[in-house]
Write a structure and sequence with these properties.
By secondary structure, the chain is α/β, with parallel strands linked by helices. It contains 13 helices and five strands. It has helices at 2-23, 25-34, 40-63, 67-89, 107-124, 135-153, 157-160, 173-179, 183-186, 203-218, 236-242, 255-261, 287-295, and strands at residues 193-198, 226-231, 249-253, 268-272, 276-280. α3 (40-63) packs antiparallel against α6.
Length: 296
């Protein structure tokens, strides 16, 4: 009985971990993308697959159907622990997103957490398992449901948003033409520049800056080719530090000017080479278009 209660608690931990990741899925996507192993769209999809499968494992641990699930959970947790160890060796002390962005765990702290989980899983793996006539069908159904449900609750941007972005006026051409007279931009007339219109008070602006920072690092795009245009604020330096954008050039403009350019909202991302080549909002950022713009 004690082993089943332990297994139930372990299952609830995995379920909670999946829910917390889903709650802050944008940060989890960027964390995967910033590792620089996968393109942006695949990172977005992989984040949902990880969350869905973690949810499935948690539910199956609670249902206590298979020893195989316990063994599989040990293997997967061990694999992630190896990955975390590599991050520790590389000097990473940031949130590893194991419980999303709202509960901070560094890679080192998460290794300790995983050690306890693995020890508990090893202890319960030889316990009794429930017998149910249709448990195989139920298990497969739960796997499909977990993966599908995550993608319904949080559709991948590249599948959902891009279909409708063409109907959105991302920026105001008239006010952007006025902004082109800004001395900083006039110096860049012949340069390819990625311009982000941001506010330090906007959560999507923070995510945009994190994503752009990861993108330019992954593709070796010079930070000199990036310009942040902020609504006037005293918090810009802390914003840059939090979003890993310390070396990116920035200017400040009155709130009215920024919002007029952005059709009443931020963030807005513009690819500029003496004219607007393309524009995006956060959920419409297309990695291939930005890389092509700078590499051609």
């Amino acid at each position: 009985m004690l082993k089943y209660i332990t297994k139930l608690l372990l299952g609830l931990i995995f379920i909670s971990s999946a829910i917390l990741k889903l709650y802050s899925i944008d940060d989890f996507e960027i964390y995967i993308f910033a590792i620089n192993l996968f393109p942006l769209d695949f990172s977005i999809l992989l984040a949902r697959l990880i969350i869905g499968f973690e949810l499935f494992l948690g539910i199956l641990l609670c249902l206590n159907f298979y020893k195989f699930i316990t063994n599989l959970t040990i293997i997967i947790t061990s694999a992630f622990t190896v990955f975390l160890a590599i991050r520790v060796i590389a000097g990473d002390v940031e949130n590893c997103q194991c419980f999303g962005s709202n509960i901070f765990l560094s890679p080192a702290q998460s290794i300790i957490k995983n050690a306890f989980l693995i020890a508990a899983l090893v202890w319960v793996r030889n316990s009794n398992y429930f017998k149910l006539k249709y448990k195989k069908i139920l298990s497969i159904s739960l796997l499909v449901l977990s993966l599908v449900m995550i993608n319904i609750l949080s559709p991948p941007d590249f599948l959902y948003y891009n279909k409708f972005s063409k109907f959105t006026d991302i920026y105001n051409p008239e006010y952007f033409e006025e902004f082109k007279e800004n001395s900083v931009l006039k110096q860049r007339e012949t340069d390819k520049t990625l311009i982000c219109f941001l506010s330090t008070k906007c959560s999507l602006c923070s995510l945009t800056a994190k994503k752009i920072s990861a993108l330019i690092n992954n593709h070796n795009i010079s930070k000199n080719n990036v310009l942040y245009v902020f609504i006037e604020s005293d918090d810009i330096l802390s914003f840059l530090a939090e979003t890993k954008s310390n070396d990116i050039n920035y200017i400040q403009l009155p709130v009215e000017d920024v919002l007029q350019i952005g059709n009443g909202g931020v963030p807005v991302v513009i690819l500029y080479e003496n004219k607007v080549v393309d524009s995006f909002v956060y959920r419409g950022i297309v990695e291939k278009k930005i890389v092509k713009f700078f590499k051609e």
